[in-house]
Every structure is written in structure tokens, then in C-alpha cells.
Amino acid sequence: MDKEDSTVLDDNVESRAAFEQIAEFARELGFEHCCHGLRMPVPVTRPRTVFYTNYPPEWERLYRERGYLEIDPTVLHGMRSSSAIVWSDEFFSTVPEFWQTAQSYGLRYGWAQSRRDPEGIYSMLVLARSGPALDIEELRDKEERLSWLLGKSHFLAKQACSDPVINEKMPLLSGREVEVLRWSADGKSAAIIAALMNISERTVAFHINSVVQKLGVNNKTSAVARASMLGLLW
């Protein structure tokens, strides 16, 4: 995630209220700090990211200035996997300076998990505290509530965000339009798609043009990319 494209999720009343709810739920679960980030699926080349955190201000400053976002193991794990992670010395073994600095600001024990919804919107929730350590018994006891909070935080941030990708009604594509896009995504030409679907090339072109207009893009390639990002091809 490019720092220049990130926007702190505190630019309106709805955003602040959403995060305050998340932070309160986190405190009820025993975590004094939390961070939630939400990444839009478009624009594809520079996806917009919004986030909010109640980490210590000095840690937030260092995180930005030192470019920790690019090396943070929690973020890197969340981008690769939706499985939950619990912080440990081993988990941060490749970035000892980062880990030592984080601990000096009370970020010693943590839990994090990411999720991606059918619309292609990605988010990650990180909960942290200075102590006590997280043990297996506590994690088992709070597993359902942590999972619930992950979904709740995603929903609240998604609703509060003003980005049109989130707030506008999802484009409705016909079954034929989706099928044409799927074949296009596989690299099939209009002639091959026409033969596979038993329709004319002119009809294939008609469906492509219709999708381009519905998705607000300029060409077939962009239509395939946007539809895929929005989960419309699944």
C-alpha cells in the first residue's frame, strides 16, 4: 500500500464514529490499541486505502517516516493470507529493529486478521496491548468474538467510507455479459467467444460495449479488470 495513496479514516463524523465503535469493542476484549485499514479494489494501479488507529502518536509518526508499512510482517501476512496471526518474537524475527521499537511503545502482544469481501474490498484488523501475553486459552475463549469484530469492523468502515466504489449500487450484469467477460478474461477472441456461446461476433461486441458502459470504463481490458476486482465474475 502506497503511503501517498492512504487516507486516515477520520475525515468525517461517520468515519470517526465507526472507529470509536471498533476501538470500544477492542477494549472490551482486553486490547488497549487497535488499527483498522480498508483497501478499495479500484483504481487498479493506485488502489485507495483508508485507515484509522489509536496507536501512540509518536509510533504512528515513526511508522510513516521510516516506511514501516513496506516491511511490517503483520501487513505482509494479511495481504497473503486471511488466517489470523498472533504476534511473537519469531514472527518479527526478520525485522528486529521494527519489533523492538514497536514494543517500546507498548505494542508487545497482538492479534491480527484480514478479509476480502465479494466486492473485492480488502481490510485488516489489528489488536494490540502491552500485556499480558496472549495464550491459547484466551484465544479459544475469544475466537468467536474476534471473528465477529473482524466482520463488524469491515462493515462499519465500508459503510462510513465515502468512496463511490463502496457506496454506489453494484453494477448489475446479465448472465450473458458475465459469460462474455469470463471468456475474455481467459484471453479468448471475439470470434472464439462467439463460437463457444453460439452467438454472432456482433452480439459479443454488443455485450462488451454494454459492460463497458455499466462499469464506467474505456475498453474491454479495463472492464475485465474492474469486474474481477468487484467480484462480478465469480
UniProtKB/TrEMBL annotation:
Domain HTH luxR-type as annotated: residue spans: 166-231
Record keywords, A-Z: DNA-binding, Transcription, Transcription regulation
GO terms of molecular function: DNA binding
Transmembrane residue ranges: none
Domain of life: Bacteria
CDD domains: LuxR_C_like
Biological process, per Gene Ontology: regulation of DNA-templated transcription
InterPro entries found in the cross-reference section: Sig_transdc_resp-reg_C-effctor, TF_LuxR_autoind-bd_dom, TF_LuxR_autoind-bd_dom_sf, Tscrpt_reg_LuxR_C, WH-like_DNA-bd_sf
Pfam assignment, any one: GerE
Keyword Glycosyltransferase belongs to the record: no
Annotated protein name in UniProt: LuxR family transcriptional regulator
Organism: Roseateles oligotrophus
